Amino acid sequence: MLDVRRLRLLRDLAQLGTIAAVAKVHTYTPSAVSQQLAALEREAGVPLLERSGRRVVLTPAGVVLVRHADTVLSALEEAGAAVAAAGDELSGPLRIGAFPTAVRTVLPAALVTLGRDHPGLELMVTELDPADVPEALRERRLDVALIHDYDVLPASPDHGLEESPLLEETVFLAVQAGTGIDEIRSTGEAAWIAGTPGTVCHAVILQLCHAAGVSPRIRHYADDFAAVLALVAAGQGVSLVPQLAAADPPPGVRLIALDARRRTRIAHRPGAAGHPAVVAFAAAVRASTDAYLSN
């Protein structure tokens, strides 16, 4: 009999690439992960891993087992969802992840709705970058999350997630009023305010600037869009902000709509789409998003 916990480790190795990365995700030592994978090989009766230089890679049998591991783990999620649906009312923790602009705009009303309609749920919100969501879902630190990417820089599909679209937002070029700038191409020697290197927001600025033939001169780094807009208002540079962050810009900021969209999706583990808590969250956040955008 194959141990499900060890199957999860093998699946994570296929996704993360190294035993050290798997150990970090599960707060194990690399030695403990190696021992668990060796035990899985004994259970399977065939080699699942082989050395390639200083790394380990999956054997053909390991690749086959990972495909089945995804099916098994998804089936366990579906089983948990079915059991939860058989109950009289929703109860227990619902761990929600969301990026900062969603936490400030569409999420609060959704939480109010969930608390009113399902008082037995223990709602727990974690603010985090979308890039950190897959790991948090795999580790079961989250049950459901809001993630985003941009149409000009689409995220690579993650087979460890199931996603459904929530909304698309216009992306704006934020400039100080009176500058005469009307598009990215005309930013010229203007300073830029960008997200921290490695974030999606930083990468999107580089992508759109390069597409417009501009080499952005980044002077300031800020990940909070309220701070970004305050810096723009103070004449410290230009930046990009999505619609949710641009609803109430400070005086002195002009917003120029661009032909680019930020796309937000609801994400959860495969097989969890039918879990009543996930269904309730999706309904609540869709209603709150529609209400927010209509105001």
Automatic annotation (TrEMBL):
GO terms for molecular function: DNA binding; DNA-binding transcription factor activity. Residues 2-59 form the HTH lysR-type domain. Transmembrane segments: none annotated. This is LysR family transcriptional regulator. It comes from the Bacteria. Keywords: DNA-binding, Transcription, Transcription regulation. GO terms for cellular component: protein-DNA complex. The keyword Ligase does not apply. Pfam families: HTH_1, LysR_substrate. The keyword Cell cycle does not apply. Belongs to the LysR transcriptional regulatory family. CDD domains: PBP2_LTTR_like_6. It comes from Kribbella qitaiheensis. PROSITE patterns: HTH_LYSR (PS50931).
